[in-house]
């Protein structure tokens, strides 16, 4: 994911200095949207197992605080309308990210320590989660109390370090640093400006009654993936239409000459930069995650 993010930045940086639009081919080759789609594919599997198959689901990855938080949070947003409200989303981030132990300091590179970059700990994991949430919101504009601006401003304050919510790696570190005494919560900022983050299209009645979760138009959302995944243009500081437009057909990868030992993992021109959803595993930035049905 670090490489994907760097490629996106490379693709859009020149458009800040010239009237040319972002490089669409470079955007596609970055693999960013493929990663978002893969994450949502995993979310759909979890949601279907719980809502339609009435199964329990165990989500686990190597460390438990990257992909686990992503998929667990996205699944809850799809399953429970409460997490599609402003208060519910705040509770979800506090529960499945802050209290669960997502290593914000490592992943965001806070405090200016070079070693986080040298050791390649920095990764846009929470950014990915917000992007995937935007995809669901865009596909279901009447089902969310919060708007796109809310997600975008939350991403801004993830890196602004103006509030103590996302500082350090876990609750113990925040307790030892007396973050609660020495700083304010980012949620104070959002709650004081609640009307700015309220979605004008929100219709609570669209979620239906409590027991309509398996009926089309009921409480449960099933995100669309594939071609339905779009660039979150506002997040990248682009105008609407600059990054989302006509599809670009990339040249097919050239086949290796017979006898050169090419194989399928060469990563040549046209190779997919992101792993897909295969065999119940969701590819991540550097770790995989399994979803087991129980």
TrEMBL record:
Residue ranges annotated for the Myotubularin phosphatase domain, each copy included: 1-236
Compositionally biased tracts (Gly residues): 261-270, 277-286
Active site: 61 (phosphocysteine intermediate)
Domain of life: Eukaryota
A GO biological process held by the record: phosphatidylinositol dephosphorylation
Recorded GO CC terms: cytoplasm; membrane
Single GO molecular function: phosphatidylinositol-3-phosphate phosphatase activity
InterPro entries: Myotubularin, Myotubularin-like_Pase_dom, Prot-tyrosine_phosphatase-like, Tyr_Pase_AS
Cross-referenced Pfam families: Myotub-related
Annotated segments matching region Disordered: 247-294
Binding locations of substrate: 61-67
PANTHER family per UniProt: MYOTUBULARIN-RELATED, PHOSPHATIDYLINOSITOL-3,5-BISPHOSPHATE 3-PHOSPHATASE
Protein name, as recorded: (Perigord truffle) hypothetical protein
Organism annotation: Tuber melanosporum (strain Mel28) (Perigord black truffle)
């Amino acid at each position: 994911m670090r490489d994907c993010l760097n490629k996106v930045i490379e693709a859009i940086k020149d458009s800040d200095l010239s009237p040319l639009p972002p490089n669409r081919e470079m955007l596609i080759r970055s693999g960013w949207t493929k990663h978002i789609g893969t994450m949502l594919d995993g979310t759909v599997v979890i949601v279907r197992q719980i809502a339609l198959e009435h199964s329990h689901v165990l989500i686990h990855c190597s460390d438990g605080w990257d992909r686990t938080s992503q998929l667990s949070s996205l699944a809850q947003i799809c399953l429970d309308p409460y997490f599609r409200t402003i208060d519910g989303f705040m509770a979800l981030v506090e529960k499945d990210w802050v209290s669960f132990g997502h290593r914000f300091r490592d992943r965001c590179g806070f405090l200016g320590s070079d070693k986080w970059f040298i050791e390649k700990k920095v990764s846009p994991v929470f950014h990915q989660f917000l992007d995937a949430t935007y995809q669901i919101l865009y596909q279901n504009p009447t089902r969310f109390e919060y708007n796109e601006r809310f997600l975008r401003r939350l991403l801004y304050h993830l890196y602004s370090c103006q509030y103590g919510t996302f500082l350090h790696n876990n609750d113990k570190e925040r307790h030892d640093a007396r973050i609660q005494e020495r700083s304010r919560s980012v949620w104070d900022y959002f709650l004081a400006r609640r009307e700015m983050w309220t979605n004008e299209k929100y219709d609570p009645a669209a979620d239906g009654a409590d027991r309509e979760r398996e009926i089309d138009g009921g409480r449960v959302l099933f995100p669309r993936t594939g071609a339905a995944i779009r660039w979150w243009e506002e997040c990248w500081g682009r105008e609407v239409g600059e990054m989302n437009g006509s599809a670009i057909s990339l040249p097919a990868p050239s086949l290796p000459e017979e006898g050169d030992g090419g194989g399928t993992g060469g990563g040549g021109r046209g190779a997919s930069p992101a792993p897909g959803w295969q065999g119940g595993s969701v590819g991540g930035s550097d770790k995989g995650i399994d979803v087991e049905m129980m």
